[in-house]
Amino acid sequence: MIQSVLNEGVTGIQPGGINGSSKVKSGGSDFGQMLKSAIEKVNDAQTESDMKTEAFASGKIENLHDVMIASQKASIMMETAVQMQKKAIDAYNEIMRMQV
Q1: SS3 61
Q2: Phi, psi angles (nearest 5°) of residue 98
Q3: pTM (whole model) above 0.70
Q4: pLDDT tens digits for 41-75?
Q5: Which residue in 43, 40, 41, 50 sits closest to 70, CA to CA?
Q6: Does the chain have fewer CB atoms within 10 Å around its N or its C terminus?
């Protein structure tokens, strides 16, 4: 998903007029939907990991490998989301420091 954003680039934003405002075309909602979908996938992975961990603890699942794989998958997805958040904040701060 992230790679597709990098390949496609940011579209739908046009430079503003004299007052410097910018307008977002309908493509702006696509980014919002994509972001929401990515967050939902992270949440689903966390939920799946929790369910498998509880099932293993209660003896319903005997395969520790599946539990560990789900746990690591959820952990990696969460760490990626946190790092993307940090990069977005850094980019915003860098833009705010730019002199016009």
Answers
A1: coil
A2: -65, 140
A3: no
A4: 999 999 999 999 999 999 998 899 999 999 999 99
A5: 50
A6: C
